[in-house]
Each structure stands twice: as structure tokens, then as C-alpha cells.
Write a structure and sequence with these properties.
Blueprint: H1 2-9, E1 15-19, H2 24-37, E2 43-51, H3 68-76, E3 81-88, H4 93-104, H5 111-128, E4 144-145
Parallel strand pairs: 1-2, 2-3
Antiparallel strand pairs: 1-4
Helix pairs in contact: 1-2, 4-5
């Protein structure tokens, strides 16, 4: 993985954003980037989706209701990872669906992923001035570098 990620990090200007969940894939991407950027003083800003403040709804058996604590443990292993928890503050998924429909004029394919993407886009530029928003069409977001001049 490192040679591939190393080529992706070329020209990152010392700071990249990464999505970091409690899963293995995003952890491998974020920690590989941190390890590869460390010799030159580079940093990784790792964003994790967390429930909105005060959420006390049910969590299906065998699932995590909040990936923030486990993602924080991974981030803490590397001094050059800044961990940012981003809450999805929509009151309901219908709110996120309405926003998506207004933007795209169609129903979303993966509503929870879009709600998280909206929260990240709403929070990260104001809070950290980082743009880790390059994603595949569906599924887990991926790492990207900041736009030039950002």
C-alpha cells in the first residue's frame, strides 16, 4: 500500500485530509499517510463521523453507535495526525434527503453517506480549513490533498 499512497501524496504540501472510521481500510490509509509524511514534518487531518450531540437512539446489536473513540485511539498512535470528530447534525435523515434532492434533483443512493458528507463539507472548511472531500460515488470516502491555494 505504501508505494501507491506515496505517489498519491507527492505534492501534498505537507498536509492531507483523510476520513478515519473505526474500520481497517480508513485506518490503514490515514496511518500510512502519517508514516509517509512524518519524515518531512507533514501532517494528516483525520475526520471521523460521529453522532450528533445528545443522540441516545438505539444501536443495532453488533454495531458501533459512535466510531469516534476507536478512531481517536488510532489517531493517537501518530503524533502527526490531528483527529477531528464531525457530528452529523441533521434532525432526521429526511432533512439530509431533502437537501440532497434540492442539490441533485434526484433521490440519493446512499443517504447516510451523504448526510456525513454534508456535515463534513459544512464543518471542515470553517473549523480547520482542510478539504478531505474526494469520495467515490458510493461507499467509504477516500483521502485527497487540499486544493492548490487552500
Amino acid at each position: 500500500m505504501s508505494p501507491t499512497r506515496g505517489s498519491r501524496l507527492r505534492g501534498a504540501q505537507g498536509c492531507v485530509g483523510s476520513h478515519l472510521s473505526a474500520g481497517l481500510d480508513s485506518g490503514a490509509v490515514a496511518t500510512s499517510a502519517a508514516r509517509l509524511l512524518a519524515p518531512d514534518g507533514g501532517r494528516v487531518v483525520a475526520f471521523t463521523a460521529v453522532p450528533r450531540a445528545g443522540y441516545d437512539g438505539p444501536v443495532p446489536h453488533g454495531r458501533l453507535g459512535d466510531e469516534g473513540p476507536l478512531a481517536a485511539e488510532v489517531a493517537a498512535l501518530y503524533p502527526n495526525i490531528e483527529h477531528v470528530r464531525v457530528p452529523t447534525d441533521y434532525a432526521t435523515m429526511l432533512d439530509a434527503a431533502e437537501r440532497y434532492f434540492q442539490l441533485a434533483d434526484r433521490a440519493p443512493l446512499s443517504l447516510p453517506a451523504h448526510a456525513w458528507g454534508f456535515a463534513l463539507n459544512d464543518a471542515s472548511p470553517r473549523a480547520r480549513s482542510r478539504w478531505p472531500t474526494s469520495t467515490r460515488r458510493t461507499g467509504a470516502p477516500t483521502t485527497c490533498r487540499r486544493p492548490p491555494g487552500a
